[in-house]
Amino acid sequence: MNVVSNLVYLLAVLGVGFGARRVGVLNDARANYLTQFAFYVALPALVFGSTSTQSLEEVLEPRLVVGFWVVLLVVAALGWAVHRNESSPAVRSVAVVQSYHCNLGFLGLPITAAVFGGVVTAKASLVLGVGALTQIPLTVGILALVNDADADLRRELRGFLTNPVMAALVLGFCVSALGLTVPASVSAGLDAVAQLALPVALLAVGASLSFGGPSVDVSTVGSVVVLKMLVMPAVALVTFSALSADLSTTRAGVLMLAMPTAVSTFIYATELGGDGNLASVNVFATTAASVGTILVVLQFVG
Predict the structure, then answer these.
(1) What kind of membrane protein is this, topologically (predicted)?
(2) Which of these, 90, 66, 93, 70, lies nearest to 80 by C-alpha position?
């Protein structure tokens, strides 16, 4: 599929997931099954398949990691500056973290694989791993600090260490480094499962979206959408250009950082004293906006 077809497909499957949840076809249990399949099966298959078949020297690009960190910290600082005067800590903390926290796994990696494939997907898998190491601690730390909440860091560490996507990333890199060849039958099976990553993840994300209540400040939501969906990709493009990154690195870095706010931020917000209603609306708004903004981003890196 070309770029426009991919984005139409993205919108359509998100809409199916959203509509199926509204009419009760995707209830909590079924939506949870989709999420678990994407997280424990399809995404690990995609990560392993993309990294095990690529040259490790080409994938492990320092400029990709440095660029990701620079963009993340710059936009987090901008988010803090823009939202520092929000009415309450619960609103301020959510607005800040959702201005930078990207949906790297359920949207970023599958979309990158569908649009570019090859080494770009392998580098996007590296971004996913670096993002798990960076985004989650930063988000948990900001929410806990601003809301004066107790964060269970040991639980977050256990979740990271048992993350199947991270395990697949490490295994894929090991296979590549050792020059091993995955049997054709196994590779074909993994490819078939990996092909399900995007539609299943889109259905799961669509089912998780909600509009929230009428009490949400429209200006706050708007500023989050602008920072996350316009400013962050622009900062990413400038950063990777300044680092003289090659085309595959720029594509992986910019497209992954152009993803909407992660659904997981809603969970972190509700657990750590943030405004859950605002978090839900921001996820919906940035995801809806991403259909157009990703098309714009791909005009620069595609």
Answers:
(1) Multi-pass membrane protein
(2) 93
